[in-house]
Amino acid sequence: MKIIAGVIKPDAGEHAVQKGARISYLPQAGIVHHGKTLREEVETAFSFTHDLIKRLEETGGKLENAKQGEASTQILVEEHHHLQEQIEDSGYYRREAAISMVLMGLGFSAKDIDRDTEEFSGGWQMRIALAKVLLEKPDILLLDEPTNYLDIEARNWLENWLLSFKGGYLLVSHDRYFLDVCVDEVYEIFQGNLKRYAGNYSAYEKIRKVELESLIKRYGEQQEEIEKTEALIRRFRYKASKAAFAQDLIKRLEKMERIEIPESLKKINIFFPPAPHSGKIALTLEGIGKSYGQLKVLSGLDLCINSGERLVVAGPNGAGKTTLLRIIADAEGKFTGYEGSVKYGAGISAGYFSQDAAEALDTEMQVIEFLEEEAPTALIPKLRDMLGGFLFRGDDVHKSVRVLSGGEKSRLALLKMLLNPLNLLILDEPTNHLDLHSKDILLDALSKFSGTIIFVSHDRYFMEALSTKTLELTPGSNSAAGKTRLFYGNYTYYLDRVNSEQQESTAVQEKLPFTKKEVNEKRILDKQKQAQTRRLERQEAELLQKLDELEKAKTALVAELALPEVYSNGEKAKAVKLKIDECTAAIEVKTSEWEAIAGGSTGG
Question: 41, 429, 537, 540: which one is catalytic?
Answer without folding.
Answer: 429
